[in-house]
# Entry
Amino acid sequence: MSEARTDTEAVELANTAFYDAVERGDFEKVADLWLDDGHGDVSCVHPGWPVLSGRGEVLRSYALIMANTEYIQFFLTDVHVSLAADTAVVTCTENILSGGPAEDGAELGPLVGQLVVATNVFRRTPDGWKVWSHHGSPVLAESDDEEDDEDTV
# Structure
């Protein structure tokens, strides 16, 4: 197996581990998967949020998200890995299913689906591939009016 293919697989595994850790609410694992301050400044953009810079600020955001989300599941599609030396870029679509607090004795709150396109940048370290940057942008749904307009053009 070629080294490039091995690196691609390692990056794919790191990317999957990142989403799995968020799903499980495993803050320690999320923190372990982010690059530490000695290797470069990390950054993160959650959909609708400003740019977060620095490991502390980024990790606080994940702590807040996990503390305030009862349920979250990611179905990743359109995953593509690009490698250049010790840097990897992963683009993917996050098909997110999430739920808030339960109401009126229900086991789980209302579930909401969302599409987000994401770019995750990884750097190779002695401890494996670590997240350097995450940027998520919501995919805006087309309205019926827009689809009708396209049909008439």
